[in-house]
Specification:
Chain A: Belongs to the cation transport ATPase (P-type) (TC 3.A.3) family. Type IB subfamily. Chain A: One of its GO terms (molecular function) is ATP binding. Chain A: Keywords: ATP-binding, Cell membrane, Membrane, Metal-binding, Nucleotide-binding, Translocase, Transmembrane, Transmembrane helix. Chain A: This is Cu2+-exporting ATPase. The complex is a heterodimer of chains A (757) and B (50). With 757 residues, chain A is an alpha+beta fold. Chain A is 48% helix and 17% strand. Chain A folds into five domains: 98 residues, Alpha-Beta Plaits, CATH 3.30.70.100; 240 residues, no CATH class; 85 residues, Distorted Sandwich (Calcium-transporting ATPase, cytoplasmic transduction domain A), CATH 2.70.150.10; 130 residues, Rossmann fold (3-Layer(aba) Sandwich), CATH 3.40.50.1000; 95 residues, Calcium-transporting ATPase, cytoplasmic domain N (3-Layer(aba) Sandwich), CATH 3.40.1110.10. In chain A, strand 24, helix 21 and strand 25 form a beta-alpha-beta unit. In chain A, helix 5 runs antiparallel to helix 8 and helix 16 crosses helix 17. Chain A is elongated. With 50 residues, chain B is mainly alpha-helical. Chain B has one domain. Classes of the chains: A alpha+beta (757), B mainly alpha (50). The interface between A and B is medium-sized, with 30 and 26 residues.
């Protein structure tokens, strides 16, 4: 690397590869675990079998300084421990040689100990132990144990139940208490009251040597409900891990140039306004800055939504997150990372979030009706028995039996089971869903707002007039184009991928002129590919937007390039239209580019040249009109709109903030997955309603039995288990993607992967 | 009838042992990579990590 920025850069076809992180960045992503050993987490999304584990662990173990490599197949991540001897091992390079793409995982996120899941699993294990042992002891009571034997058994049950209920039931009591403190109710309020009442009554009866005790009902209730909670949590955790494992787009630091012209790689936080930075071709701009020296093309697509790259030279302002494509630039930072364009987006997002009404889960809405109904019934049966019989104990027993038997065991499982199944189906189709409420909200949408660049389109250029171009000129142009990573050059190269083999020509010397184009010399002739003004020296009409291939200044071919639609875009629009959903495009790109895409897809409503704040305003306006909007977008500029929308979706290629805050993230290129997600959410909504009907139907049958005083602990245990099983089985009916010759795993597997330490 | 007095403690102790074993294995990271564990068994040169 030299201290001056060259105006022309000679690049090879290697420039296509993603830049590997430098040693300094690698070190920055590591954390010390003592004894001079550092641990680095690397996310490798393409790990898929035992062979991969074996290959990677053996391959990396050979590297200098590597102490230990451990691949985690479930989270598709590997932990590398290496001895600090100055330079870190080139693990990413070694992985590339083995055929895997790896990227560094943020150490702060990797190191965060997440105690929630183990805590839930411990509570679940304790509840399982308690409920099974109490059940086995209760069997002897049901079988006819009497007198002191029954009493001893009841006392043993009580001594197991008390610690288990306190330990495992905490989750429910805490949540119920939080809701009550804010004057609300949720599902956990009737659950907590039911558990407490059942235990208190059973203890009283045991003390007085009465026949019935409900310890088994209380503990198995906690056990069943914890299963639902844990699955729900595992589902969200799994998505979080998967989304975090995607390549981080924003850089962790930048190469700085100090006053003596020395280079130093610094973390993002250490960059101050006024710091001079070197940004080489292929790097993203880390902070807002102004170009001091150099010429290049900058891809603004993730920031403003513009599809065509813009040439820049000294004096131009660059926002954080833009991508430098062709030349090296020396820039001066104008803001610290926290004040950059990104930070402004985050402020807009926070504003959008605070303006949004809190969504109430369907289960909580159900419990708002359910809890008063149950408590009223229980009270009425107490009063009824007092009037007709006058025995306080008998009346209390019946009232509590009513509480226990109606305790929303099936209701507590009805929603999470379906949502866990739906999340699993979505996961199989490579769609990540953030939480259960996202699916409930997706089920309600009536409007979809799309961003254009990177969402409806792939953000990749494509040659559209390929038929008009002389094949020989095309293959030569393609070969020349293979030396640049400019999107237009890539598109021309992609139009004739085997060009080099067919043309027989070879360019001896290729130079890239950032902002202008490429020049190559072959058999004494000078070939140029790039802007018309650069490539053409003849007198033909010059159209500024076209890309020209020329020989010694004579035009050989001109290429018309346009952004490529994502596969499945047409069929998505068609299916959404059939489902009666209104569609709209809001883009930051220029009017003609947006109109072209809108016309191709047949979406009449579109707005072009919109600023991030404008997108947010549009979503807010639609929301005010009572519409439920699904926002699909990828850019930094979409992030506030994603936040404000009723529900949001982003492709895996989206900017980090947008992706981390979207409700759904889809990893496939095809847009059809958007409709698949909608369909699964709709099916899940249907199953949830069915499950509610089943749970309510069960109560209709069981309630009279309880009110009449026939709900013995035995009847309660059978009824509760049965209703739970029916609800779970119903949830398992949820179908995923239609089978397309792919083998699906049989049976239901607990998605326990990614359990934190 | 007197069997009762040692059979119940035995059954509870066995259950408790199972519970403790599960908690131990959870803490020990045995559930961190379930997919990987099922694949690793196919490669017999896999050495336990130090």
């Amino acid at each position: 690397m030299t201290c001056c920025t060259p105006t022309t850069v000679i690049v090879s076809a290697d420039a296509f590869r993603q830049p590997t992180p430098s040693a300094a960045e690698f070190r920055l992503a590591s954390r010390s675990i003592g004894d001079g050993i550092l641990q680095t987490e690397i996310s490798v999304p393409s790990i898929h079998c035992g062979g991969c584990i074996n290959k990677i662990e053996r391959g990396l173990a050979k590297l200098d300084g590597v102490q230990n490599v451990r691949v985690n197949l479930s989270s598709k991540r590997l932990a590398l421990r290496w001895l600090d001897q100055g330079t870190p091992p080139d693990a990413i390079g070694a992985l590339k040689q083995l055929g895997y793409d790896g990227h560094l995982f943020d150490p702060t996120e990797a190191a965060t100990p997440d105690g929630e899941l183990p805590r839930m699993l411990r509570a679940l294990a304790v509840a399982a132990f308690a409920s099974m042992n109490i059940m086995s002891l209760s069997v002897s009571v049901w079988a006819g144990a009497e007198g002191s034997t029954r009493n001893i058994l009841h006392w043993i049950c009580a001594s197991i139940a008390l610690p288990a209920l306190i330990y495992s039931g905490r989750l429910f009591y805490q949540s119920a208490w939080r809701a009550l403190r804010y004057g609300q109710t949720n599902m956990d309020v009737p659950i907590s009251i039911g558990i407490a009442a059942a235990f208190a009554l059973s203890l009283y009866d045991t003390y007085h040597g009465y026949e019935h005790a409900y310890f088994d009902a209380a503990t198995s209730l906690v056990f069943f409900l914890l299963i639902g909670r844990t699955l729900d949590y595992v589902m969200r955790e799994r998505t979080r891990t998967a989304v975090k494992g995607l390549a981080q787009l924003s850089p962790r630091g930048a190469m700085t140039i100090n006053a003596d012209g020395e280079y130093d790689y610094l973390a993002l936080k250490q960059i101050r306004p006024g710091t001079r930075l070197l940004i080489t071709a292929g790097e993203r701009v880390p902070v807002d800055c102004a170009v001091e020296r150099g010429i290049s093309d900058i891809d603004f697509s993730l920031v403003t939504g513009e599809s065509a790259p813009r040439p820049v030279e000294s004096g131009a302002a660059l926002q954080a997150g833009t991508l430098n494509i062709t030349g090296s630039l020396v820039v001066v930072a104008t803001a610290v990372a926290d004040d950059s364009f990104l930070a402004e987006m985050i402020r807009l997002m926070e504003a959008a979030e605070s303006g949004k009404s809190v969504y109430r889960h369907i289960a909580d809405r159900a419990s708002r009706l359910y809890a008063p109904a149950v408590h009223l019934t229980s009270l009425l049966s107490f009063v009824g028995w007092m009037i007709f019989q006058g025995d306080v104990h008998q009346a209390a027993t019946v009232a509590i039996a009513v509480l226990i038997i109606t305790c929303p065991c099936a209701l507590g499982l009805a929603v999470p089971m379906v949502q866990v199944m739906a999340a699993r189906r979505l996961f199989e189709s490579r769609i990540m869903v953030k939480d259960g409420s996202a699916m409930e909200r997706l089920n309600e949408i009536d409007t979809v707002v799309f961003d254009k660049t990177g969402t409806l389109t792939l953000g990749q250029m494509q040659v559209t007039n390929i038929d008009e171009i002389d094949p020989r000129a095309l293959s030569m142009a393609a070969e020349l184009a293979s030396h640049s990573r400019h999107p237009s050059a890539r598109a021309i190269h992609a139009a004739a991928p085997h060009a080099a083999a067919h043309s027989g020509s070879h360019f001896d010397q290729v130079q890239e002129f950032p902002g202008l184009g490429l020049e190559g010399i072959s058999q004494g002739k000078v070939y140029r590919l790039g802007r018309a003004a650069f490539a053409r020296k003849d007198d033909g009409v010059q159209i500024p937007a076209e890309t020209v291939f020329s020989c010694d200044g004579r035009k050989l071919a001109s290429f018309v390039l346009s952004d490529r639609l994502r596969p499945g875009a047409h069929s998505l629009v068609e299916k959404l239209r059939q489902a009666g959903i209104v569609m709209e495009i809001i883009s930051g790109d220029s009017e003609p580019a947006v109109r072209e895409i809108a016309d191709q897809l047949g979406i009449p409503n579109y707005t072009a040249g919109i600023l991030p704040g404008g997108k947010l305003e549009r979503i807010r306006m639609l929301t005010k009109q009572g519409r439920k909007v699904l926002m699909v977008g990828d850019g930094l500029n979409d992030a506030p709109a994603l936040m404000a929308a009723h529900v949001s979706m982003a492709p895996a290629t989206a900017a980090d903030v947008g992706r981390n805050n979207a409700d759904f993230v889809f990893l496939q290129d095809s847009l059809e997955t958007v409709f698949l997600a909608y369909r699964i959410a709709r099916d899940a909504g249907k199953l949830i309603r069915q499950n509610f009907v089943i749970a309510i139907g069960y109560n209709v049958v069981a309630l009279p039995v309880a009110i009449l005083g026939h709900a013995t602990p035995f009847v309660a245990a059978i009824a509760m288990s049965l209703s739970s099983i029916v609800v779970v089985v119903n949830a398992l009916r949820l179908k995923g993607e239609p089978m397309q010759g792919k083998t699906k795993p049989l049976g239901f597997k607990l998605p326990l992967e990614g359990v934190a330490k | 009838m007197s069997d009762f007095f040692y059979l119940i403690p035995i059954s509870l102790a066995l259950g408790l042992a199972g519970l403790v074993l599960f908690l131990w294995s959870l803490k020990n990271g045995q559930y961190e990579d379930l997919d990987g564990a099922s694949e690793r068994i196919l490669y017999d040169d896999d050495m336990p990590s130090q």
